[in-house]
C-alpha cells in the first residue's frame, strides 16, 4: 500500500487489508468500533468514503492510528527535524477518494512518529465550511492548540466559542468535541494531543 501515490490510494481496499490482518469480520470490526455493520461494507466497496471522525472511530476497533493506516511503512522515531514535505498528511487521501472540492476541506498534517513519542503534533488547515463532523469526537487524551490564522469554532461539551488568531484552547478529550470553520476565510491551527488520537 505504501507505494501507491495519493491519487491512487484506495481507502476501501486498505480498510479491508487492515481488517483481515487483524482477523476480523466486517461485523466484528463494526462491533468493536461501535459503528453500523453496513458502514464497513460500504467503505470497503468504495460506495462510501468515511469522514475523518468516522475513519478514526473505525480504526479504534483494530486499534490503529490514521498515520499507520495511510503510511504503514513510514516510521522514523529518531528523526528530529522535519521539512513541510515530510509532515504526514492524514486527510488528503480521503478527499481524493471521494472527490471533494476544496471548499469544506480539512487538512491535518502530523509531525513525525506520534506513537513513538506519545505526542501528536498537528498542523491543521480548515477551508470555509470544514467540519470534523456532526458526530462529536471523544477519546482518552488531552489536547490543546493555538489558532495562527483565521477563525475556528470549537465545541467542547456544552461550551462553544469562536477562536481567532492568537487564541488558544486546552481540554480533556474525553469531553465530546467538534471543530468547524464557520467563517468565509481559511483557518490554521497548531495543535498537540497526548496520547496520540489520529
Automatic annotation (TrEMBL):
One Pfam family here: HTH_3
Keywords: DNA-binding
Domain HTH cro/C1-type: 15-69
Superkingdom in the source lineage: Bacteria
InterPro entries in the cross-refs: Cro/C1-type_HTH, Cupin_2, Lambda_DNA-bd_dom_sf, RmlC-like_jellyroll, RmlC_Cupin_sf, TransReg_Diox_bact_type
Protein name: Cupin domain-containing protein
Source species: Benzoatithermus flavus
Taxonomic placement: Bacteria, Pseudomonadati, Pseudomonadota, Alphaproteobacteria, Geminicoccales
